[in-house]
C-alpha cells in the first residue's frame, strides 16, 4: 500500500505545476510537469511488476 501512497502524493504534488502551465503559460512549470509524468510512468510500471509478482506467487 506504500506504493499507492507514493503514487497519490506524486499526483497531488503536480497539481500546482499543471495549473501554472495550462492557466498561466509558465513554460518552466511545463518542464516540471513532464518530469513528474515520467516519474509517474516509472512508478506505475514498478507497481505493475510488483502486482504481477504477487499474483504469480499466489
Q: Would you kindly provide a written description of the structure presented here, covering whatever features stand out?
A:
The chain has one domain. Helix 1 (2-24) packs antiparallel against helix 2 (27-57). It has two helices and no strands. The protein has helices spanning 2-24, 27-57. With 58 residues, it is mostly helical.
The percentage of residues in β strands lies in under 5%
**For this entry, what is the oligomeric state of its chains?**
single chain
Which parts are unreliable, with pLDDT below 50 for 5 consecutive residues or more?
A: none
Distance between the termini: 18 Å
With helices defined by DSSP (H or I, 4 residues minimum), what is the helix count? 2
CA gyration radius, whole angstroms: 15 Å
Helix content: over 70%
- What's the SSE pattern? HH
Coarse shape = elongated
Number of strands: 0
Tally the structural domains.
1
Q: Give the structural class.
A: mainly alpha
Largest sheet: none
The overall pLDDT average reads 96
Family: Belongs to the histone H1/H5 family. HCT subfamily.
Organism: Fulvivirga marina
Function: Might have a role analogous to that of eukaryotic histone proteins.
GO molecular function, one term: structural constituent of chromatin
